[in-house]
């Protein structure tokens, strides 16, 4: 006959069981806490560089030379305060209280390398002048860190990882928003509006040759022999193309407008991922304060240092 179990034995067994349960609970708690700490450390290490990359727009009003009015100055700043370089940097400027992108403007696209502890800036005043509703200018920046992780710092300052995502062409179904991104219509201070007028005038019977010449930059010697036959040839070369993307400004008085095959021209590039190659031609435009933008060339982009302006056109640095 087995010995009777006493209350002391039961208490001892219960205490042992409780000790085991507590030990297991502590072990689980420590495991979870350790895992959380490890994930937090991994995330901290992962964003150690990305968290120190930012872009913003500085806005100020300064008096003009004769003191009769204020001039709005806008400068985009890009900074990498980390100890590591970042790569394939893309920047987009946003305007309005609910930011809409108006493109990289004067910022190179992309910037191959932004070194550690380096800050860069660009004057975007003239480029922004082509648009309406430009309150609260801001910027977003996409980049790749030294561990080949891709990041996006949004207009609102939030940071998200976009590794593995590729930029895609998204169809622009919001017509009003698309028109607002194009800038002011029929304004010679808007390079996009001039490029659109150029494309329209190429094959329009309502626009005669002299009116067409009014869209062209007189400093471009290639237009000197323009006649109806050569205009028709240009029309054939650009047939099936339409404007796409945003205006880029490689220099303050030079602008590039990309023209794409018509099936892609009503699309915009989604931000955040890696850039994607797109078949395109470039309309190069030049600017002078007394006339606005004019078309300098089309096809391949004309580099800014290959353009000869009238004396006194470019302001001294």
Structural notes for this entry:
The chain is of the alpha+beta class and 317 residues long. It has 2 domains: 50-161, Immunoglobulin-like; 169-306, Roll (Nuclear Transport Factor 2, Chain: A). It has 7 helices and 16 strands. Strands 3, 4, 5, 7, 8 and 9 form a 6-stranded antiparallel sheet that branches. Strands 11, 12, 13, 15 and 16 form a 5-stranded antiparallel sheet that branches. The longest helix has 40 residues, at 7-46. The radius of gyration is 29 Å and the shape is elongated. Residues 169-174 have low confidence and may be disordered.
Topology:
Layout: H1 7-46, E1 53-63, E2 70-80, E3 86-95, E4 100-101, E5 111-114, E6 118-123, H2 125-128, E7 138-144, E8 150-153, E9 159-161, E10 169-171, H3 175-182, H4 191-202, H5 209-213, H6 228-237, E11 241-243, E12 248-251, E13 254-261, H7 262-265, E14 267-269, E15 281-288, E16 292-299
Antiparallel strand pairs: 1-2, 2-6, 3-4, 3-5, 3-7, 7-8, 8-9, 10-14, 11-13, 12-13, 13-15, 15-16
Shape descriptor reads elongated
Proportion of residues in extended strands: 25-35%
Q: What is the average of the pLDDT values?
A: 82
Q: What value does the Rg take, in angstroms?
A: 29 Å
In the predicted model, the low-confidence regions spanning at least 5 consecutive residues are 169-174
Series of H and E elements: HEEEEEEHEEEEHHHHEEEHEEE
The helix-and-strand class reads alpha+beta
CATH architecture annotation name of the largest domain: Roll
Tally of discrete structural domains: 2
Q: Outline the biggest β-sheet.
A: 6 strands, antiparallel
CATH topology of the largest domain: Nuclear Transport Factor 2, Chain: A
Alpha-carbon distance between the termini? Answer: 107 Å
Number of strands: 16
CATH class of the largest domain: Alpha Beta
């Amino acid at each position: 006959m087995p010995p009777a179990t006493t209350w002391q034995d039961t208490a001892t067994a219960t205490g042992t069981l409780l000790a085991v349960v507590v030990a297991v609970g502590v072990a689980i708690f420590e495991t979870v806490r350790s895992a959380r700490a490890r994930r937090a450390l991994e995330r901290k290490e992962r964003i150690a560089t990305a968290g120190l990359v930012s872009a913003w727009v500085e806005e100020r009003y300064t008096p003009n030379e004769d003191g009769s009015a204020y001039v709005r100055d806008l400068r985009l700043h890009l900074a990498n305060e980390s100890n590591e370089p970042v790569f394939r940097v893309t920047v987009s400027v946003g305007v309005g209280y609910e930011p809409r992108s108006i493109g990289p403007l004067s910022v190179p696209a992309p910037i191959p390398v932004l070194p550690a502890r380096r800050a860069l800036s660009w004057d975007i005043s003239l480029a922004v002048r082509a648009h309406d509703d430009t309150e609260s200018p801001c910027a977003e920046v996409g980049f790749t860190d030294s561990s080949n992780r891709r990041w996006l710092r949004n207009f609102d300052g939030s940071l998200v990882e976009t590794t593995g995502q590729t930029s895609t062409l998204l169809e622009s179904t919001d017509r009003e928003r698309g028109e607002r991104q194009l800038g002011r219509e029929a304004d010679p201070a808007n390079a996009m509006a001039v490029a659109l007028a150029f494309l329209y005038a190429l094959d329009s019977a309502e626009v005669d040759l002299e009116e067409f010449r009014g869209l062209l930059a007189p400093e471009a010697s290639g237009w000197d022999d323009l006649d109806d036959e050569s205009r028709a040839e240009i029309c054939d070369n650009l047939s099936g193309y339409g404007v796409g993307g945003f205006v880029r400004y490689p220099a303050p008085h030079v602008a590039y407008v990309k023209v794409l095959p018509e099936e892609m021209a009503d699309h915009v590039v989604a931000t955040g991922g890696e850039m994607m190659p797109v078949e395109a031609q470039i309309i190069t435009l030049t600017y002078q304060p007394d006339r606005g933008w004019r078309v300098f060339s089309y096809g391949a982009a004309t580099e800014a240092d290959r353009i000869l302006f009238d004396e006194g056109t470019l302001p001294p640095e």
